[in-house]
Amino acid sequence: MTKPDNNLTINILESQSPIWLSVSEAASLGGVTGKTIRRALQDTESGLVFKIIKDRYQIQLRSLIIYMHRNTKLNNKFLQLGLGQYVKEWKDKEN
What we know:
Elements: E1 20-21, H1 23-30, H2 34-42, E2 50-53, E3 56-60, H3 61-68, H4 72-80, H5 87-94
Antiparallel strand pairs: 1-3, 2-3
Helix pairs in contact: 1-2
């Protein structure tokens, strides 16, 4: 398998078209409960970027990842139960 051309690689965290997630999708990818995400949405200092469409929260993936790395407990959940558990597998496949 050949390595992808670095000039063609898209960095998901700096994309011009952000990925928006529902509360349940954000919770699943973060490895936490929906209640944790909703609590963070109410906290103005959480840093979560969101918009409301038809009474539904839409959370930006980039801000979710940054939020999950803010403290040790959330980071551990992200790495053990959320999206972070697959990072090692992705890195192994690149080599």
